[in-house]
Amino acid sequence: MGKILLVEDEEGLILTLSDRLTSEGFDVATANDGEKGFEMAVNESFDLIILDVMLPKKNGFDVCRDVRKEGVTTPILMLTAKGETIDKVLGLKLGADDYLTKPFETIELLARVEAILRRTPAGSENGTPQEFHFGDVLIDVKRAEVSKMGVLIELSAMEFKLLKFLVENRGNVHSRDELLDAVWGYDATPTTRTVDVHIAWLRQKLESNPKHPKHIQTVHGMGYKFVV
Known about the structure:
Blueprint: E1 2-7, H1 11-23, E2 26-31, H2 34-43, E3 48-52, H3 60-69, E4 76-80, H4 85-93, E5 98-101, H5 106-119, E6 131-134, E7 137-140, E8 145-148, E9 151-153, H6 157-168, H7 176-184, H8 192-206, E10 216-219, E11 223-226
Parallel strand pairs: 1-2, 1-3, 3-4, 4-5
Antiparallel strand pairs: 6-7, 7-8, 8-9, 10-11
Helix pairs in contact: 2-3, 4-6, 6-7, 6-8, 7-8
């Protein structure tokens, strides 16, 4: 089903998650500190990285940031015991694809893992090059930055994550519910109206004519799609 790197220092959790993921058909490699996790993430090929925030030698935020700086775009699911919004936002800003707050049920972790792998384009390490152009907009994936005509555009973590998902899955139509699951996650409580608002913000910031968007298009009765 896929190869997963689990970077976690709690021995009990390592055993529990490794056993469960293996029983689900995944090939699991483990690292019990941030430095080892970083080296493995950079030098080996994985389909997903499960990364704890609180790690010895190098914390999860630093690992996530440095992995992205090295050009590795393997999806990252971060585990945080704090549950504070600032930690979640920071993780997303640094390049994480999703987060899960401890304590959690193993079944929820599996659901997150399956959702991330399902929306990662098959046969490629990522669906977005390290730099992606459309119109006069440049997305720098490694830096999590977006610029228009050379000027940096301030995007929130969720705006960037939504844009990244749309670009990775360009050409495909996504319903509002699908976007909620993919971008905000299973434990989020926003409504489909939240999707509309964030789409409107992205258009306002990135489209040449937000009222008649060329790239972030509405497919009436179905949802949204991104076209180059």
